[in-house]
Design a protein that fits this description.
Blueprint: H1 9-15, E1 21-28, E2 34-36, H2 40-49, E3 62-66, E4 70-76, H3 79-88, H4 90-96, H5 98-106, H6 113-129, H7 132-150, H8 157-168, H9 173-177, E5 181-186, E6 191-194, E7 200-212, E8 218-221, H10 229-235, E9 245-246, E10 249-250, E11 255-258, E12 266-272, E13 277-280, E14 287-300, E15 303-308, E16 312-315, E17 321-324, E18 329-335, H11 338-342
Antiparallel strand pairs: 1-7, 2-8, 3-6, 3-7, 4-5, 4-7, 6-9, 10-11, 11-12, 12-18, 13-17, 14-15, 14-16, 14-17, 14-18
Bound molecules: zinc ion.
Length: 353
């Protein structure tokens, strides 16, 4: 950046002279790849080792805020759900081998947590290592069976997911890997954040996505691109259970804040009715605004802009921004996590929040 002053001292001191976050609008028609992003330590290591594949040394925590109904896969399923998958998808069970699946079915639910998690990692690792032809055969067997059963009964949401994904990505291991992940359905206004080393995929819908500025991705399926199986299987946390869904905290009548446990960003949603206005007070870091609906005015440092759907604006650090509308206006604002700006000396602790 040629004029790093606009980022503010705290940000430049902590992250250097580039904007630490990116803000995007995503419209997902066809499912995106199952992927995970390495943590900072691993990202640094991978970048050194394979700079062509891993483009930078940064981590990439991300957050999706649903604009429409939005479906995603995020994190590994619980042990109970894993039992259910093994029982209802015999083709899958056959593929990953009885050696791994048997202990799950006999495990004591009250004291078996550690053992169950490692079983899940064994199953995932085994699945990702199976040859493509074997995956193809298992998938066609599975698809044939479900298609037949579809004529005589309602399919479960997992069965429907398998059919849909297989149409989009024939013979792809990701169709089966998806069975091991939580299927999450967000309503408009819900937020989902994804920490380092957690598997995820966006399946369909529209969302605002905010992330740390990085390109590092390790893919796990639903992709024609390279899958680094060894890195993938060793980096994942194998944490099981549903992810946290953020609902946003109201700051006033018009603005809700979504704060993920990451330092680089937080996102405000602002919905204004006719004649309403809101003020975003000056902060020590930069902000990026994107208007997604309606039209109105934005006033900053005595400069007034007429804005409408699709407008994107940058506000330097220490700039107060006023927004108003005569009709209606909906926008999102991304900025650095407030806790870092308020308490830059203790930001290392943020990772453990
Ligand atoms: Zn991602």
């Amino acid at each position: 950046m040629q004029n790093p002053k606009v980022l503010g001292d705290v940000v430049v001191h902590k992250w250097g002279v580039d904007l630490p976050f990116l803000l995007k609008i995503l419209s997902v028609g066809r499912s995106l790849s199952i992927q995970a992003h390495p943590d900072k330590e691993l990202a640094g290591f991978l970048h050194k080792l394979q700079p062509n594949v891993y483009k930078d040394a940064n981590h990439k925590p991300e957050m999706a805020l649903a604009l429409t109904e939005f479906e995603a896969l995020c994190g590994f399923i619980s042990s109970e759900e894993l039992d259910d998958v093994l029982e209802t998808f015999p083709e899958f069970k056959e593929l990953v081998g009885n050696a791994y699946t048997n202990p799950i079915l006999t495990i004591d639910k009250h004291n078996g947590e550690v053992k169950e998690e490692s079983v899940l990692s064994l199953i995932f690792t085994k699945l990702m290592s199976v040859e493509r032809e074997v995956i193809s055969k298992a998938l066609s067997k599975l698809i044939n069976r479900i298609s037949r059963e579809n004529e005589i009964r309602h399919l479960t949401s997992k069965e429907e997911l398998v059919l849909k994904l297989e149409k989009q990505y024939p013979n792809d291991v990701g169709v089966l890997a998806a069975l091991l992940l939580n299927l999450v359905k967000l309503e408009p206004g819900d937020g989902l954040y994804i920490a380092a080393n957690e598997p995820h995929a966006y399946l369909n819908g529209e969302c605002i996505e905010c992330m740390a500025a990085s390109d590092n991705v390790v893919r796990a399926g639903l992709t024609p691109k390279y899958i680094d199986v060894k890195t993938l299987c060793s980096m994942l946390t194998y944490k099981q259970g549903l992810p946290e869904i953020l609902k946003g905290v109201p700051l006033n009548q018009y603005v809700r804040r979504y704060t993920p446990p990451f330092e680089e960003f937080e996102v405000d949603q602002c919905v204004l009715d006719q004649g309403a206005s809101a003020v975003f007070p000056a902060v020590q870091g930069p902000s990026v605004f994107v208007v997604i609906l309606g039209e109105g005015k934005m006033l900053a440092s005595s400069c007034e802009e007429l804005v409408s759907e699709g407008a994107a604006l940058f506000a330097p650090a220490e700039t107060e921004v006023c927004v108003s509308t005569d009709s209606k206006l909906q926008l999102y604002k991304a900025g650095v996590n407030r806790k870092v700006l308020l308490n830059p000396l203790h930001d290392e602790e943020m990772r453990y929040l």
